[in-house]
Design a protein that fits this description.
The protein is mostly helical. The chain contains 6 helices and no strands. The chain starts with a helix and ends with a helix.
Length: about 130
C-alpha cells in the first residue's frame, strides 16, 4: 500500500464518496505535501496551484471542490472516532478551513502509514527469525 491508497482509504472511512472531485484534489494535495522538502512551509495557494496546473483547472475550482468535500465530511460525521483521532481536540462542530484540514490529514497519513509499514516489516522479521 502506498500513501495515495492509504489517504484514499482514510477519506473513504471518513464518509467521503470517491466520485467527488474534491476527494481526488485532497488526495493530490496530500501527495504534494508528502513530496515537499522539510524546509518548505506550505500554504494553500501552493497546493491549489499545483493541483490546478496538473489538471488544467482554475485554482478557485480546486479550492471550492476541496471545501465542498470537507463540508460533506463534517455534515455527515459518519466516523466520529476516526475524526477525533485525525483532528484531535479540534472542535468537531466547527468545520476547519481547507489548509487546516489538509495539514491535519497529512500529519495523520504520514504518521500512521509509516508506523503501519514499520510494524508489518517488524512482524515479518520476527516471524522469519523464530525457530
Amino acid at each position: 500500500m502506498n500513501y495515495e491508497a492509504y489517504t484514499q482509504k482514510t477519506l473513504t472511512s471518513l464518509g467521503l464518496p470517491t466520485v467527488l472531485r474534491g476527494c481526488q484534489y485532497i488526495n493530490m494535495g496530500i501527495e504534494y505535501l508528502l513530496n515537499l522538502d522539510k524546509y518548505t512551509i506550505p500554504n494553500a495557494n501552493m497546493i491549489y496551484s499545483f493541483i490546478a496546473n496538473q489538471l488544467f483547472l482554475e485554482t478557485s475550482s480546486v479550492e471550492n471542490s476541496i471545501r465542498n468535500a470537507i463540508h460533506i465530511i463534517w455534515k455527515n460525521q459518519s466516523n466520529q472516532s476516526l475524526m477525533t483521532t485525525i483532528f484531535g481536540p479540534y472542535n468537531l462542530k466547527k468545520r476547519p478551513c481547507n489548509m487546516e484540514f489538509l495539514m491535519l490529514l497529512y500529519n495523520y497519513v504520514y504518521f500512521h502509514f509509516e508506523n503501519t509499514d514499520n510494524i508489518q516489516k517488524l512482524e515479518k522479521l520476527w516471524l522469519n527469525t523464530q525457530y
